[in-house]
Amino acid sequence: MALSGITTVLLDLDGVLYVEEEPIPGALEAVEELRARGLRLRFVTNTTSRSRAQVASRLARLGFPLPADNVLTPAALAVRRCGVVGHKRVRLLVAPALREDLAGLAEAPAGEQPDAIILGDLGEGFTYERLNQAFRAMEAGAELIALQRNRFWRRTDGLAMDVGAYVAALEYATGRPATVVGKPEPAFFAAALADAHGDAGHAVMVGDDIEADVGGALAAGLAGVLVRTGKYRPGAEDRSGVIPTAVIDSIADLPALLAG
């Protein structure tokens, strides 16, 4: 099956271009071929452990040199959300590296009730005490702004639980839904398309997450291509109920898919 008329390609990173420090075989060549065809490329990720500049630096180190402004992460949308609703003070529950992307937000002093909790990847820092502090702040009225709610991701040593489990725990404890700003939210895809000057009807999202990448893209009006690398597990499509526009073995097969 070939996809025709595509002018904009959104590419997930971890699991699609690389797994930790190893590029997916054929990924470098595929990206170069797509660029050579004049397609608008944007690199979109739900990672909340690194700043946008660090993500771009890592891509360059792995052989994918590109400007940092070609990378879209959820942090910018969290800042936008706080501005829209008027949050003055927030509590940041994010990795230290991500704070530079959230520098536009004022942090509530210790002991002061925040207007919002910004929740990202804390890794080993996800402790009961931190989650309980977030729970108490939410009970007192703070909005939970989740940078993403992925279920799991793939490390070199296997699958690892992601931020979504902690978001779900806080939602369950408080009975209040989080505001999610990363994939699969339509606003995330809209921001990426606006940045690339593309439109949904001529755009495709390529990812290894059937729900966040493919399901989110389809709901936002884009085509959604699932790769069988990264966190992909056989039968993921059937279990999720999401029907991808196409399924390919890896990004190495993408140029041929878009050749129509």
From TrEMBL:
It comes from Svornostia abyssi. GO terms for molecular function: hydrolase activity. Residues 1-82 form the STAS domain. This is Haloacid dehalogenase-like hydrolase domain-containing protein 2. Keywords: Hydrolase, Magnesium, Metal-binding. The keyword Signal does not apply. The keyword Magnesium applies. Belongs to the HAD-like hydrolase superfamily. PANTHER family: 4-NITROPHENYLPHOSPHATASE-RELATED, HALOACID DEHALOGENASE-LIKE HYDROLASE DOMAIN-CONTAINING PROTEIN 2. InterPro entries: HAD-like_sf (IPR036412), HAD-SF_hydro_IIA (IPR006357), HAD_sf (IPR023214), LHPP/HDHD2 (IPR006355), STAS_dom (IPR002645). Its cofactor is Mg(2+).
